[in-house]
Amino acid sequence: MLILGIDTSCDDTCISVIEVKSQKSKVKSFKILSNITSSQAKLHAKYGGVYPFLAKREHQKNLPVVFKKATKGIDVSEIDLIGVTIGPGLEPCLWQGINFAKDLAKKINLKIVPVNHIEAHILANFIEENLKLFPAICLVVSGGHTQLILMKKIGEYKLIGETRDDAAGECFDKIARILGLDYPGGPAIDEQARRWKFEIRNSKFEIKLPRPMISQKNYDFSFSGLKTAVLYDFRSRSPKVRKSKEYIQEMTKEVQQAIIDVLISKTIGVAKEFRVKTIILGGGVAASQELKKQFKTACLNSKFKHLVPPKNLCTDNAAMVGVAAFYHRDKATFDFEKIEANANLKI
Check: CATH 3.30.420.40 for 2-127+313-338? Predict the structure, then answer.
């Protein structure tokens, strides 16, 4: 079985073809035949974030090109199903992927499976079969979302906590802008923090940032205050200090650790409360090597199994959409009029 996945939820144009490997109708694994992503990061860098209607225009231009690359060497007539992200995300962007999927499905007479982008991030961990891990707690952490989700099985979820303001990835972007670093902020801060550990390794400015809501008896997040604390500290420094690599690297190290501390504390806490077997990580921020390293240690210390996708399946991609489409293939439909973008779609 071949599944074509399409994702245009934000500024990455993503198309993938996956093959479902099975034995006697029981799924064993998925083989990624192609997983192409066209990034618009450089285009949006001057804005410090994604400009939705510019992203929409680029998706429209990029989709045919990415589709051609993704299906190179693949007989399109052998594709069995199309999965497309319908939300959450930026509505103008979502519609580009949806309309492209509809046009393609009409041409080759295929059904479409509407896919939830958050669930797809979770199911990126199921490229290899992992069906004996439930119940699980999923931490989905990306530019637009920071959520803790109780997963009883594939398709059965309960939202336990989420951010009340800025998501972790959004916080990284805004802090990077304050410090004069590149967009997207997560990788830029990750790199500077890594340099601090190898080049400086001692505190010169004694920066100590808050860990927002870490002690509150709930599983929600708030990172807006962390961004404000960085801004106040930055403004309190002389122009010379602000531009120094020592200050930038020490600040990014502290920012990264503050966010990791909150994410780990909340996740381990909710995992213990619900007595789950496994902790599952997903979303673009999960690509951080430091976050993955510390999560692995925390899970091992607390005796939880843990799943983290490879780096290329953490950030937005269409292979995860194809996997989600397979698990919801019973929702495949020819009734394309009912497939609509939902920017605020919940899991």
Answer: yes
State pTM to two decimals.
0.94
- What are the angstrom distances between the C-alpha of 319 and each of 124, 189, 265, 281? 8, 27, 30, 16
- Provide the pLDDT for residue 144: 87
Q: Domain extents for the chain?
A: 2-127+313-338, 136-308
Q: Percent of the chain, pLDDT > 70? A: 97
Residue pLDDT, tens place only, 187-231: 999 999 999 887 767 778 999 999 999 999 999 999 999 999 999
C-alpha separations of 170 from 83, 165, 186, 229, 291 in Å: 27, 10, 9, 15, 16
CA 294 → CA 173, 190, 346, distances in Å? 21, 14, 28
CB-based contact 189:248 (threshold 8 Å): no
48, 47, 54, 45: which is closest to 13 by C-alpha? 54
Same fold flag, 2-127+313-338 and 136-308? yes
Query: Tokens 């637009």 appear where?
Result: 144
In whole numbers, what is the pLDDT of the chain averaged over residues? 94
- The CATH number fitting domain 136-308, selected from 3.20.20.70, 1.10.3720.10, 3.40.50.2020, 3.30.420.40: 3.30.420.40
Query: What Cα–Cα distance (Å) separates residue 169 from each residue in 50, 65, 225, 326, 347?
Result: 13, 28, 14, 28, 19
> Helix crossing, 245-273 with 168-179: angle to 10°?
170
Paired residues of 5 in beta bridges: 16, 83
- Buried b / exposed e over 117-140, threshold 16 CB at 10 Å, is bbbbbbbbbbbeebeebbbbbbbb
Give 166-194 pLDDT, tens digit per residue.
999 999 999 999 999 999 999 999 999 99
Report how far residue 54's alpha carbon sits from residue 342's, in angstroms, rounded to the nearest whole number: 19
Residue 36 pLDDT greater than 80, yes or no: yes
| SS3 (DSSP) at 164 | coil
Q: How confident is the model at residue 143 (pLDDT cuts 50, 70, 90)?
A: confident
